[in-house]
Design brief:
UDP N-Acetylglucosamine Acyltransferase, domain 1; single chain; 10-stranded parallel sheet; 12-stranded mixed sheet; Udp-n-acetylmuramoylalanyl-d-glutamate--2,6- Diaminopimelate Ligase, Chain: A, domain 1
Amino acid sequence: MEFTARQIAALLDGAVEGNPETRVNSFSKIEEGRQGSLTFLSNPKYEQFIYDTEASIVLVNDDFAPSAPVRSTLIRVPNAYASIARLLEYAGRLKPAPKGIAPTAHIAPTASIGADCYVGPYACIAEGVTIGANSRIYPHCVIDEGASVGSGSILYPQVTVYAGCVIGDNCIIHAGAVIGADGFGFAPEGESYTKIPQLGNVVIEDNVEIGANAAVDRAMIGSTVIRKGVKIDNLVQIAHNVEVGCNTVMAAQTGVSGSVKIGSGCRLGGQSGLAGHIRIGDNVSIGAQAGVIGNIDEGSIVLGAPAVNARGFMRSYAIFNRLPDIYRTIGALQRELEELKKERTQ
């Protein structure tokens, strides 16, 4: 389908700068722009490409001030990054979603499948499972006894949902993710370990997205809870009895130990790790590869391992970079001191 700059601007509440009848039928990166495509500029590091791009339309922020002529038609919006996300979502909705039950899918007699759902080949839906309307269960998914999936949710191929777990409305679970495996609970007895039964479940609220091969473990008792709007990247590990607050985001390979409570609106960088039984306040930012071993107050920004206040970390890192010079200076001072001692004893 084709859209004009005028139509796109109306959809985004933007303002056209250039030919409002310019047409596009695809998307492109700004450095690879081609005729008939739409792209965007939100990061100033990519500004150089806007002056040479062949893209027909470029979304830019309202305050963008070009330093040279731009050949493309511009659409000015308050937030170009958010606007391209809206357009991509809109384009995705235009594609017809698969529907119907594949002949090779296994659905238990007591399972309940809502209207207009898709269940792909070799998916396995066990006894007592409920799936809401307009959800999509892709091939080779397994949804175990008594689990539930809300309306409008998508489980991509080979997602496994263990017994009794709950997934809300409009969630997206990417391929290979495991929801509800046993938490890592073992009691030491002598030279061996005894497994502690994990009898709880996982509750994932509405509008959550979980990346490929991520794992959210079931609680020992009660529930591991992922609140509304949380976004979890690929290869993230959430341990038993964790609670993640609304609209928190976690980058890839983050690991959260058991019984951690994470507040709302937090941002966890890639490969960050959180020790067990700690509390993270609302709106906390944790830098990539940070190791958090204690509670963090609301609104804090932390870096490093063990994680400390970001400003303190940067001051310490500045000193760390100077350690060779400091070491040489100390060595020189020690030699001078030795010389002064010799002079006094003579």
